[in-house]
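Q: Given only this backbone (89 positions), what sequence would you predict?
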């Protein structure tokens, strides 16, 4: 089946990483990390069925997303606000 090939998961990881550059927010990058992990597992020869691949993909994506939000996210969950006009003297 197509999902058993490592390059399918690698292509999905690359596509999701490219999508992250177009729509930033650490969401697609987490999915890319999950797809990359499944790709590596498939490449080294771990034999998994599709439900297990999807479970590993989902769990790795969630962990990567939480880690990236902790490391790169704004502290306190607030939006950066600019109160003054930089063009005024």
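A: Predicted residues:
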């Amino acid at each position: 089946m197509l999902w058993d090939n490592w390059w399918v998961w690698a292509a999905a990881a690359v596509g999701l990483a490219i999508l992250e550059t177009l729509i930033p927010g650490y969401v697609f990058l987490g999915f890319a990390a999950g797809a990359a992990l499944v790709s590596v597992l498939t490449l080294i020869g771990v034999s998994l069925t599709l439900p297990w691949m999807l479970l590993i993909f989902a769990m790795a994506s969630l962990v990567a997303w939480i880690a990236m939000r902790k490391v790169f996210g704004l502290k306190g969950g607030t939006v950066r606000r600019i109160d003054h006009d930089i063009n005024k003297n």
